[in-house]
């Protein structure tokens, strides 16, 4: 690869203690950007996501869940209960740029890899930590998990209508959001190292990331005592059509209600409900009128009409439809590789696109301990005399 199209993080080494979703999503992106990511795993099963959904055989250790989060990494399986194996990791860290973990507070110190100890080994080290609630405070000892963060941060309580039951958001929104905050923290800290020559500890948490996700709503509540709920807007909603569903956002126009009525072919309801206040007070009636009309024609019919009136709308799609959508193909969001155990696999590609460099999979998701000999050889350690893994 020529210098003109080098990956942004080429030459950066990341020692990765993370597992499951939040941390691995961050270190995978760092790997996509060109970093050499060495994944430290327990030889007794490795990353917990290797055995997600009960997979226990050799093929299961590289199941789709694990493979979705661990491309562009090398796996080093070591029993860190043994001092000689800790020394191997210390040797790696002395020349590394970044260490990433996502254990609850105190675990890295307990196993011998706390920030202050590693800073003595490598003053330039960026020490990145992701946790459930942060390193201090009344919840710091608690284990972090996506669904718990949804509940503890107030996200789960928020819904389009108070009459709807409280439910779990079915995609790992907390893990991924926090993982991307972790990427941002690492990149910013690396820039700091380039300017000052000094590393630092950077920390993110599921809890903080979910509060930040609600910055608009929280700021309104803090300053007015009221909360904004975008899903409660009277001209917004999901409506069933003759053959599916669509979502409509009736906003950002001078008189969106009038435009909606024109598309639906009904009387101008904005005459009786001219402003947001009256529309809020009569939301059930307005939504019922919309639903009655939308059910009479196909989704395509209504999307064409709404878009023709410059109203924001979209069909509601199944994931399977999205994966086959031509826009997904054009954006290069699915990539394939040949896995020695699983055969041909398809995974979701890096969502960030550079004009001059390719962030696709250079390394397929590793088998547990696949790179032990390779990494140990780089350290000058003879496999025959190396400590037991």
What is the compact description of this entry?
With 389 residues, the protein is α/β, with parallel strands linked by helices. The protein has helices spanning 22-32, 64-67, 83-94, 107-110, 115-121, 146-152, 173-196, 206-213, 215-224, 256-264, 276-281, 283-294, 299-308, 319-323, 326-330, 372-378; strands at 13-16, 36-41, 73-77, 98-101, 126-131, 201-205, 236-240, 245-249, 312-315, 334-339, 343-348.
Structure description:
This protein has 16 helices and 11 strands. With 389 residues, it is an alpha/beta fold. It has 2 domains: 264 residues, 3-Layer(aba) Sandwich (Rossmann fold); 71 residues, no CATH class. Helix 1 packs across helix 7 and helix 7 packs across helix 8.
Reported CATH architecture of the largest domain = 3-Layer(aba) Sandwich
Whole-number mean pLDDT: 94
Largest sheet: 6 strands, parallel
Give the helix level as a range of percent.
25-40%
Oligomer: single chain
What CATH first level of the largest domain would be assigned? Answer: Alpha Beta
Globally, the shape reads elongated
Keywords:
36% helix, Rossmann fold, disordered C terminus, 16 helices, 389 residues, 2 domains, 3-stranded antiparallel β-sheet, alpha/beta
Give the topology:
Blueprint: E1 13-16, H1 22-32, E2 36-41, H2 64-67, E3 73-77, H3 83-94, E4 98-101, H4 107-110, H5 115-121, E5 126-131, H6 146-152, H7 173-196, E6 201-205, H8 206-213, H9 215-224, E7 236-240, E8 245-249, H10 256-264, H11 276-281, H12 283-294, H13 299-308, E9 312-315, H14 319-323, H15 326-330, E10 334-339, E11 343-348, H16 372-378
Parallel strand pairs: 1-2, 1-4, 2-3, 4-5, 5-6
Antiparallel strand pairs: 7-8, 8-9, 10-11
